[in-house]
Amino acid sequence: MKQLLESLIKDWWVRPLPKIIPREISLDGFVNLKLRKAVAVVGFRRTGKTYLLLELAKKLGQKNCIYINFEDERLPKETAVLTNLLEVITEIGGKGRYFLLLDEIQNIENWSLWLRRVLETTNHQVFITGSSSKLSSSELPTHLRGRSLSVFLTPLTFKEFLRFKQQDISFLPKAYLLNLAREYLQFGGFPEVVLVDEGKKPLILDEYFQTFLWRDIRERYNLRNTQAIKTIIQILLNSSYFTLSRLTNNVNSLGLRVGKSTLMRYLTFLEESFFFQPLYLHTPNIKNRLKAEKKPYFVDSYFLFRYSNAFSQNLGRLMENIVANRLLNYTKINPNLSLYYFKDFQNHEVDFILRQKEEVKAAFQVSFITKEELINPREVKSLIKARKIFEVKNLKIITWDLEKEIVVKGTKIIFQPFYKRMIENVF
């Protein structure tokens, strides 16, 4: 075991690093923390977590870093691997300080106990990655609470997508920019996929999906039969709303016997793996919020485009999914923010209500509108209703390419194109 680990470390020190395109998120600000904390980079698989570590290694110097990928099939998934790793580092590096870059460490049993020991007894700084929310600071085991900082990494934003495509929005004709936006809607923002030819995109994305099902669901949660969870995913991908009862009935009507408690557990697996996230109804009553219909959103719009029969050609739904992810990401960065949807008894509905603590800061609709006569009066009425209820002034409808402002009953509503909204840093 020690010989293998020593070989992996020495091979890492001489291995050429790949070309790395910078992301909006960087780990630079976490280097040389005065506090003894691990930095956990979390997110769905293939979003670029490894490249974030490699970018840091390039800046710090490879010889100052030790990178280990715990999905390497040569490494057994045993705690002894971690124990031996620390011994090998000491043997070949003495009392020197290293930056430990540990990929998918959650695959090793008792990793959190080992990490606590490293933080308490060595001067190494540790960066870990994982495709499970169990590595995020809010869900870490008790003995690691307060000993880590989380960095959440998503697929590329539209701004990053343009950078990967080497395109500058200030010099792009509108028609070409809309073409790029359409590609982003349909094929999503996984970094590897953005950089390959269109013909290869579906093959790579299908492989991502199968790997997610096998490693992040079946192996991680020890599921013998994935048919039920595949069915749940298919139903969610074709639903605008869902409730636990309705989802259970739909699954059972297809001949799969799954109880509510099991189904709830499966939904938790999908959330913990960052594949899916439910959006709750905005209501002051917590019980009503939990019982009400939820809206399903997915880590990347491609999964809707590829696997949904109902929404694959619905560009408005793809836009809505991307906007939801962008807003949900803001709530992860800023704990004072929370996101909901709104619907009243008269079926006035607003896609997104963004709150800062107890104050509603903005209300958004998302609609594939290309010209003024296609504006849906009901969407406008719903925003006006939201203004009256929440006293919110920031009212927007995110469109495909319509840009204008209107005033209805003293209420200003801004129509903003999707591609412009998506390159702005804040909502």
Summarize the structure.
The chain has 16 helices and 13 strands.
What can you see in these coordinates?
The structure is a single chain. The chain is of the alpha/beta class and 427 residues long. It has 2 domains: 2-152, Rossmann fold (3-Layer(aba) Sandwich); 158-421, no CATH class. It has 16 helices and 13 strands. It has a 6-stranded mixed β-sheet. Strand 3, helix 4 and strand 4 (125-130) form a beta-alpha-beta unit. Helix 13 (301-307) runs antiparallel to helix 14 (315-333). The longest helix has 19 residues, at 201-219. The model has no long low-confidence stretch (mean pLDDT 92).
Strand content: 15-25%
Largest sheet: 6 strands, mixed
* Total beta strands: 13
Number of helices: 16
Q: Trace the largest sheet across and list its strands.
A: 8-9-10-11-13-12
Q: Low-confidence spans: pLDDT under 50, at least 5 residues? A: none
Per the principal axes of the C-alpha atoms, what is the gross shape?
A: globular
What sequence of helices (H) and strands (E) makes up the elements?
A: HEHEHEHEEHHHHHHHEHEHHEEEHEEEH
First-last Cα distance:
51 Å
Q: Helical content, roughly?
A: 40-55%
Task: State Rg.
Answer: 23 Å
User: Based on the structure, what is the oligomeric state of the protein chains?
Assistant: single chain
Residue-averaged pLDDT:
92
| Helix/sheet category | alpha/beta
Domains, number: 2
